[in-house]
Amino acid sequence: MADEPAVAVATELQSAGVATMGSDLYTSFVREPTEGIPVKSLFVFASDGFLPSPYMRGITNRVSFQRIFVEVYARSEFYEFEIGRAFAKSAYRALHLARLPDYVWCKALRSEPRYIGQDKRENHEWNFRLELGIKETY
To answer: Are strands 124-137 and 61-76 parallel, antiparallel or unpaired?
Structure first.
């Protein structure tokens, strides 16, 4: 069985040297900056997906494909727009077409991270969505 999708994506980000889990990389919804959560951070969480697509192969086994969506959010200080954009793009480059263990594919659903504006503290935010594929044989 595949790891939790957000954990698999965060592990890839850490392996690529983009961010460090528990330091500036979190497998959770976007959280407010605090003493333990810096402004410049990445947040990764599974959002939804499609119903499994059944495919029959042979007489003795069945194959099913599942598509899972994972959201990646990047945030930076209000005076670090370019640094934040580079941070979001480095996460995107590390993940688009990455080979994640237990997943058949990992692909970004946009051509680059989308700037979504500023939060209530005027920090900049970007996001992009990934599609992960799982193949299960019964």
So the answer is: antiparallel
Instruction: Give the global pTM.
Output: 0.89
Q: How many CA atoms lie less than 13 Å away from 9 in the CB half-sphere? A: 35
Whole-number Å distance between alpha carbons of 56 and 128: 33
Which residues are paired to 69 by β-bridges? 48, 131
Which residue is it, tokens 């954009």? 85
Identify the three-state secondary structure at position 90: helix
Helix axes 81-95, 5-15, angle to 10 degrees: 110
Taking the C-alpha atoms of residue 94 and residue 113, their distance in angstroms, rounded to an integer, is: 12
pLDDT digits (tens, 9 = 90+) for 72-107: 999 999 999 999 999 999 999 999 999 999 999 999
Q: How far apart are CA 76 and CA 37, in angstroms?
A: 12
- Extract the runs of DSSP E, i.e. beta strands, from 58-113: 61-76, 105-108
Place of tokens 């945030």: 75
Distance (Å, whole) CA 69 – CA 9: 11
Under DSSP, the state recorded for 88 is H
